[in-house]
Amino acid sequence: MSKLILQMLLIIGVLLISGCTQERETIPTIQTDQKNGNQTPTKQDDSGITTPVYGETNPKQVWETFKDKYGLPGEMKAGGAGIKWNEERGIPIYIVGFKSSQYYGSPQEVATSFLQEHGNLMQLQNNSLFFVDVYASGEESTVIYEQRYEGIPVYGTKVQTLVTSDMYVRQLSADYFPNIKLVKSEEDDADASDFKVTISKFLINNSFKEGQELDDFVESREPEKFIYPLSENSDTKFYSILLYRLPGARLFLNANTAEIVNVEKL
Predict the structure, then answer these.
(1) By C-alpha distance, which of 106, 141, 149 is closest to 125?
(2) Phi first, then psi: what are they for 7, rounded to 5°?
(3) Helix (H) or strand (E) holding 263
(4) Alpha helix locations (H) across the chain?
(5) Could you write out the DSSP letters of every residue in 128-181?
(6) Is 171:110 a contact under the CB 8 Å cutoff?
(7) How far apart are the first and last CA of the chain?
(8) Can you tell me the distance from the alpha carbon of 173 to that of 96, in angstroms, rounded to the nearest whole number?
(9) Per-residue pLDDT of the chain (266 residues; tens, 9 = 90+)
C-alpha cells in the first residue's frame, strides 16, 4: 500500500514540474529607464494602428456622441474641459477634462484601444499612426504616436494620450493630417550629385567656404526621408523630401528634383 502511494506521489511531482517548465507566451511589458524615467515596451509591434470605421464619419457629429458619452461641454474654455478644433483640418487639436471607458493592458495598449474606438473623431486612416514612446510621470503616462504616410514619417506630427494608472484615458492632443495627397513633380530624375550641388550652394550662400572641406562635409551628410507639410496661403501641400541637418539650419529638399522646399533656421 505504501509503495503504491509513493508511486502516485512521484507521478504528481513529475506532472507539476512539467507544467512549470512549459514555455509561456511572451507578453509585452513596460521597463522603466531609471536614469530619465522614460518607459518603453520590451516588445513592440511595428505595424500601424488599425482603426475600423464605426457609423458616423463626420467628426463634428462624432464629437456630439463623444461629448454626450463622457459628459463634456462644447468648445474648450480657458483652463476648462472640452474640445479645441483645427478648423482647417477638421479634427480636434485637444480634448481635455474627460474620463474614457476603462481599457486593459499597458499604457500603450490602453491608448491604442482608445484611438481605435474613437478613430472617426480624428479621421484616422488605417496604419497611419505608429507608436513612438511612453513617458511615466507619477500616476499617469503619456503615450506618443507619429503619423506615417505609406510607411514614411510625416514631419512634425504627433498624437498624444494621457493614460491613468487605473487604465483610463483623460486627455488627447493631436497634430495629424487626415487627408494627404503628395505634390507630383514633373521632373523625377534627380540623382545624388544634384543634391550635393544644392547643399553646397546653400552652404556657400551662408558663409561656408568653398574647397575640400566643404566637399567632405557635403559628402558626409546622411539625409532623412519625410513627408513634409508646407502651408501656403491657408492651403497645406505635402512633399516627399530629404531632410539635411546642417549647421544652423534644417534643409528640406524635394526628393524627386533636389530643389529646396523649405529652410528652418535654428
Answers:
(1) 149
(2) -65, -40
(3) strand 260-265
(4) 2-21, 59-70, 107-117, 119-122, 192-205, 212-220
(5) -EEEEEEEEETTEEEEEEEEEETTEEBTT-EEEEEEETTS-EEEEEEE--S---
(6) no
(7) 87
(8) 8
(9) 555 454 554 544 444 444 443 332 222 222 223 333 333 333 344 566 766 555 557 788 888 888 888 888 766 665 667 888 888 888 889 999 899 999 999 999 999 999 988 888 888 887 889 999 999 999 999 999 999 999 999 999 999 999 999 999 999 999 999 889 898 776 667 888 899 889 988 888 877 766 667 778 888 888 999 999 988 766 889 999 999 998 888 999 999 899 999 999 88
Quick one: which of 250, 126, 228 has its CA closest to 183? 228
Buried b (16+ CB within 10 A) or exposed e, 76-92: beeeebbbebeeebebb
- Quick one: 165 exposed, middle or buried, by C-beta within 10 A (0-12, 13-18, 19+)? exposed
- The candidate with the shortest Cα–Cα distance to 82, out of 69, 104, 97, 65, is 97
Q: What are phi and psi of 16, to 5 degrees?
A: -65, -45
Nearest to 230 by CA among 264, 202, 195, 186: 264
pTM of the model: 0.74
Check: CB of residue 154 under 8 Å from CB of residue 147: yes
CA angle 151, 85, 166 (to 5 degrees): 75
Q: Which residues pair with 91 in a beta bridge?
A: 86
Q: How many helices (H) and strands (E) does the chain have?
A: 6, 13
Closest-CA residue to 257 (of 185, 205, 193) = 185
Residues 233 and 225 sit within 8 Å (Cβ to Cβ): no
